[in-house]
């Protein structure tokens, strides 16, 4: 090749052609340095025929500057990038960037200087230095990272280096990971687990595309079961990717992984330090990283010899990315397995309707684990009709639920109360003038957080100190908290059961792996009697002494009334119910609701999963909703209200007339303002036969906008705000 076509990592540019200088050899997929004006941009050598561009005459071509010292992106990964860009109506560059997600890794082998405490003391101790030294105990990182950890300036740390309190350590950026041992621990599987595991392992040995839906009730041991095909892949020298929905869950997973395989897996998520990132990236690309556990962004890593993907808690909506490229990692993972030819396991106790439908139509093979491991029984579920069993005035828990907790306290067992609302109260208003505290950037109320004495917006992060007087009328002591959040429920438990030790478990309190580990240890050591938590505690956790689960407000999730509200409520409540009675003691679940007759709630109470799924399936079929029809939303936004409205109107006016495709809107989005941007929304609902993406690309490609306008396309949306 003396001339190549490159995909450059700049969404505004099309593909560019370059000359290959004398003496340089390039392959397809090679990551190269492309001159662009005075700059150099990262490019990937691509099949010219798959990337239509303008044919610049040879004499006008500029030469490539060089090659990055990393393996070329393999062809199946290039196909995955193309598929993702095409399906989610995104630019190839923005998808490709997710594969090259470590700038440091491109630079090749390197070492860096990190610093750690020596145990020495500075000549002069200041409060700042003392605080820094305490925070850095056991840490080793670059000065900049340490400054972030300690919350001090880099200058303070440089001072400590000069005084010999911190010492430099040269670290090889690519030092190898310890080897995982497939047979480190032998686990005795139950008969049903063994049968499932053998099905998966056989597929790993086959090295062919095989999508599985591992449908196992809560506590059935899905993790232990899919560890067997992981081990099989390791024995064959192939790599494995395990996707988890939330980093807060990984702590528990890492522990179990280490017990089974003797080492920790390689971690990948957005808060890795840049050095950890490049080390992981390079080990993935070289094939040395055996098992990678990560958030959805791990999906695009350039594995050298991937042999299995597991998507755990596959129904979780956090696999859907809600900005940038709006992809669903669960679905893209299946495509990756397809392009590269290996099995994929989607594991869940409450599969998405889409996944069940795929199983029903024979595309996925369904593997069931119908009972809990070790003879544990599924919990008894009952509803509390709040219109009849009213909580005392100003309180939120019915007496029967409080009595249930009191019983557990007496027996030394634990309870979990679930309410998917962080903070103390979702709305603060003035008793005097009726003023409601609203976010200045979003169409949302500010949520009171009593622990931190602040009002916060959960959408944009805006925060203000809790006011002493109303900001509108100036009246002091007139603000009332409306409705409960988890903090308020925790207060109520403390008031009604003063002897209970209560812990609030949310992303505010479990915001680091360390905190999550402390929490698990405290529950296991029985230092906590009552956990009050958000969706964060609904899944993954295994606490044998937890025998009562209370759902504080099962109706909350149904209020939005969007397409997925029923399914989401079912999944959340079924998952949190699944935390009860996982050990030898039986579990009980009490669901507080004002609508015990609603089909979701009734199905949950009856433990009748099939009833829920068949009602939901019929509803979706009637509505032409996924998986029977397709949805896409188009969000038009701008910091200027009239500009957003105008742009949305122009898009609406040019809507194409396509058979079997309905286009609704534009209308102000339910969140009409978000992070300071005004938003309008159009919704498309089409039959499956419609080439929805082509329609969208064609349509939006013809409309121009002022630079301040953003048009985001969301195919198979999960968020309807
Ligand atoms: N074969 C086994 N041998 C020993 N312990 C097992 C076995 N299978 C499962 N367990 C234990 O049973 C408990 C439940 O298993 P696990 O957490 O994998 O269930 P799960 O199906 O993922 O549940 P959930 O969907 O509720 O998270 C865990 O403590 C696990 O270690
Ligand atoms: Zn906000």
UniProtKB/TrEMBL annotation:
Keywords: ATP-binding, DNA replication, DNA-binding, Helicase, Hydrolase, Isomerase, Metal-binding, Nucleotide-binding, Primosome, Zinc. Binds 2 zinc ions per subunit. Zn(2+) 1 binds at residues 430, 433, 470, 473. InterPro entries: DEAD/DEAH_box_helicase_dom (IPR011545), Helicase_ATP-bd (IPR014001), Helicase_C-like (IPR001650), P-loop_NTPase (IPR027417), PriA (IPR005259), PriA_3primeBD (IPR041222), PriA_3primeBD_sf (IPR042115), PriA_C (IPR041236). GO terms for molecular function: hydrolase activity. The keyword Iron does not apply. It holds the Pfam family PriA_3primeBD. It is an enzyme of class 5 (isomerase). Zn(2+) 2 binds at residues 439, 442, 457, 460. Its cofactor is Zn(2+). It catalyses: Couples ATP hydrolysis with the unwinding of duplex DNA by translocating in the 3'-5' direction; ATP + H2O = ADP + phosphate + H(+). The keyword Transmembrane does not apply. Its EC number is 5.6.2.4. Residues 203-369 form the Helicase ATP-binding domain. Initiates the restart of stalled replication forks, which reloads the replicative helicase on sites other than the origin of replication. Recognizes and binds to abandoned replication forks and remodels them to uncover a helicase loading site. Promotes assembly of the primosome at these replication forks. Component of the replication restart primosome. Belongs to the helicase family. PriA subfamily. NCBIfam families: priA, PRK05580.2-2. HAMAP family: PriA. This is Replication restart protein PriA. The lineage of its organism: Bacteria, Pseudomonadati, Pseudomonadota, Alphaproteobacteria, Sphingomonadales. The gene is priA.
